[in-house]
Amino acid sequence: MAASLRQALRAPAAPVVLADLDPRAIPQAPGHKEATKEATRADAAHLAELQRRLYAEATGGSRRRVLLVLQGMDTSGKGGVVEHVLGAVEPHGVHAVTFGRPTPEELRHSFLWRVRRAVPAPGMIGVFNRSHYEDVLVSWVRQLAEPEVVERRYREIVRFERRLADDGVTVLKVFLHVSPWEQKERLLARLDDSGARWKFDPSDVDDRALWPEYQRAYAVALERTDSDAAPWYVVPADRKWYRNWAVGRLLRETLTELQPRLPEPSWDVDEQRDRLLEEPPLTG
Length: 284
Ligand code: AMP
Ligand code: MG
What we know:
This protein has one domain: P-loop containing nucleotide triphosphate hydrolases (Rossmann fold, 3-Layer(aba) Sandwich), CATH 3.40.50. It is 50% helix and 11% strand. It has helices at residues 5-9, 33-59, 78-86, 104-107, 113-116, 134-141, 147-166, 180-192, 202-209, 211-225, 240-258, 269-277; strands at 65-72, 94-98, 125-129, 169-177, 232-236. 32% of the residues are buried. Residues 74, 99-102, 130, 134-135, 138-139, 201, 203 line the site of adenosine monophosphate.
C-alpha cells in the first residue's frame, strides 16, 4: 500500500486511461461514511492550524503558499470541496477563485492573465474552482481554439506552473473523477430541488453528450502537465464523503510536509516584556 494518499492518488503515467480508474473507489479511506466524515473534520482543523503557521511564516518574509487547482465535470464537487475542506480555515487565509466563461475583458488578454492575478499571496491557501485548464479542455472539446493554439497553451501552462513552484507556490491539481451515472443522478437532484435548481445549466446536459471527448481531453491534460513541480491527483468522486476526505488529506499531507515555521521575532522578547510591565499607568 502506498505510504501517503498523494502516492496512492497520483495520476498514472501516460497513457492515462480514466476508464481504468473507478470513480466509486475509496483508497485509504479511514472507514466507511460516518468514520470518514469524522476524519475529514479532524483534518480540516489541522489544516486550519497549518495555514495559520504558513501565514505566520509569511510575515517573516517567506513566499511559501499552496495552490489547490480543482477540475472536474459539472457536479463532480468542486464547490463542495471548498465548503467542506476549507470551511474551517480562517476566511482571510483562503483565496478561493471561480473561473467561469471568460468575460469580454478577459478575452482581450492571454488566457493566463486572469489566472496570474488570482495566484494566492504568500501564507495563503489558494483554491481554483476551474482554472487555466479550461482553456485546453473546453477549448479543445468545443473547438473554441485551433489545435495549434491548444498545443501552445500546454507549453505555456507547464512553464507557468514551473515558475509558480520556483516562487514558493506548492501546486496540487485535483481531477474529481465522477461517473456519468452519478452525474445524471446529481443533475436530476438539482432539477428536483428548488433550492439547488439555480446551479443547473442546460449546457451541462450538452456537455454530457461530449462525455468521451471530455474524458479524453482530461487524460491528455494529465499526461501533458503532470510533473513533480505541479502534480495531478485523480480523486474518485462518486462518493462525496470520500471525495471531501481525500482532498482534505491531500492538502493536510502537503502542508505537513512544508512544515511552516513560525518566524523568529526581530525584537528582544525580554525587552518588550519589560516595557509592558514597567509601563506607567495609562489614563483615559
Ligand atoms: P460552472 O462551473 O458550472 O458554473 O460553469 C462554468 C462554465 O464556464 C463551464 O461550462 C466552463 O466550461 C466554462 N468555462 C470556464 N472557463 C472557461 C474558458 N476559459 N473557456 C471557455 N469556457 C470556460
Ligand atoms: Mg456548469
